[in-house]
Specification:
By secondary structure, the protein is mainly alpha-helical. The chain folds into two domains: about 1-40; about 45-195, Skp domain (Protein Binding, DinI Protein, Chain A, 2-Layer Sandwich), CATH 3.30.910.20. The protein is about 80% helix and about 5% strand. The chain has helices spanning about 10-40, 50-55, 55-95, 100-155, 175-195; strands at about 45, 160. It has a two-stranded parallel ribbon with strand order 1-2. About 10% of the residues are buried.
């Protein structure tokens, strides 16, 4: 099919002009549609929440606070275990030497009593530690999710996905969120220090 005819053919010129008009309208429509589409495009970011929960400075602070809080109890439980071990050694010496039966029974009762007390203390310690750890984890998780939302707003991202399989560095905002968390901790620490 020939679109361009010789200039002496008046009908051919009209046809060529019509085709040029249709093509230009099509180009304008595509340009307008692309502009509208670009404005309505949804931006997506991805974040590795597990990485942030493990590496956020707030998680390190929470872990350090838990360690400081529960270290005395942990040391007390270790001391109790040493006393139990010493008592077991004493009891073995009494049994092997076939010493005083009253002393042996007294040491056996003391040993059972100490083991029960330590077992209860250990169970209480573990329960307290678990509750404290869960509470600290909740606080850190709220901080991480808040930071993700703040970075999303700053970067004008519409949707944040987590638990992704693969993502390019262009859409992965994990390092940006981690930087935000570090800066927030510095500000919070300075604020608490000035109070």
């Amino acid at each position: 099919m020939r679109f361009i005819q010789k200039s002496d053919n008046k009908g051919g010129n009209k046809h060529a002009v019509f085709i040029a008009f249709v093509v230009s309208i099509e180009i304008i429509f595509i340009s307008l549609f692309s502009a509208v589409y670009a404005e309505d495009a949804v931006s997506v970011g991805v974040v590795n929440v597990t990485f942030l929960m493990e590496n956020a400075p707030q998680a390190e602070v929470a872990s350090s606070n838990l360690k400081d809080k529960f270290l005395p109890q942990e040391q007390k439980l270790a001391e109790d275990l040493e006393q139990i071990n010493r008592l077991e050694i004493e009891l073995k010496k009494i049994i092997t030497s076939k010493g005083d039966d009253d002393l042996r029974r007294q040491k056996e009762r003391e040993l059972r009593s100490r083991k029960r007390a330590r077992s209860r203390s250990l169970q209480d310690f573990r329960e307290e530690l678990r509750f404290a750890r869960d509470a600290a984890l909740d606080v850190v998780q709220k901080e991480v999710f808040s930071a993700i939302d703040e970075v999303r707003k700053q970067k004008n991202i519409d949707i944040i996905l987590q638990d992704y399989i693969s993502a390019s560095q262009r859409v992965d905002i994990t390092p940006i969120v981690l930087g935000f968390l570090k800066k927030k901790l510095e500000v919070d620490t300075k604020t608490r220090g000035s109070e």
